[in-house]
Amino acid sequence: MGHGQSTTAILTCGDWDCKHVHTQCGICGIPVPPAFRQWVNIKRSYNEAYGGEFRGMKSMLARLKLLDREGNPLHGFHHLGMHDVENICRCVLHLLNDYGEIQLNGWMR
Questions:
Q1: Which of 17, 25, 41, 53 is the most buried (most CB within 10 A)?
Q2: Across 13-20, average pLDDT
Q3: d(C-alpha 16, C-alpha 46), whole Å
Q4: Is the dihedral of CA 58, 63, 65, 70 positive or negative?
Q5: Residue 107, strand partner residues
Q6: Helix (H, G, I), strand (E, B) or coil at 20
Q7: HSE on the CB side for 27, CA within 13 Å?
Q8: Is there a contact between 41 and 12 (Cβ–Cβ < 8 Å)?
Q9: Are the C-beta atoms of residues 106 and 12 closer than 8 Å to each other?
Q10: Which segments cross the bilayer (predicted)?
């Protein structure tokens, strides 16, 4: 990255959260914080890296064989914030192990 560019990024499982920040900033009449202008959508990263159709965290965990017989995460509960963060991190670490880096791939269109 060039001088003055950030080496950090927000990472999400989908674009909805970051797009919602843009909408809310517009409603409130405030500028969008720079951190929310670009982000990493881990679902898109998985689709680009592994092909297929990763539609959410469960499909990424399934690829890692981290779901039980009923299709629930082996670690924690789906849609419980702290467990979702841990499971998304598992997916990110797997992707980094395979490819070494993750690119920004989310932005307002």
A1: 41
A2: 93
A3: 17
A4: positive
A5: 38
A6: helix
A7: 6
A8: yes
A9: yes
A10: none
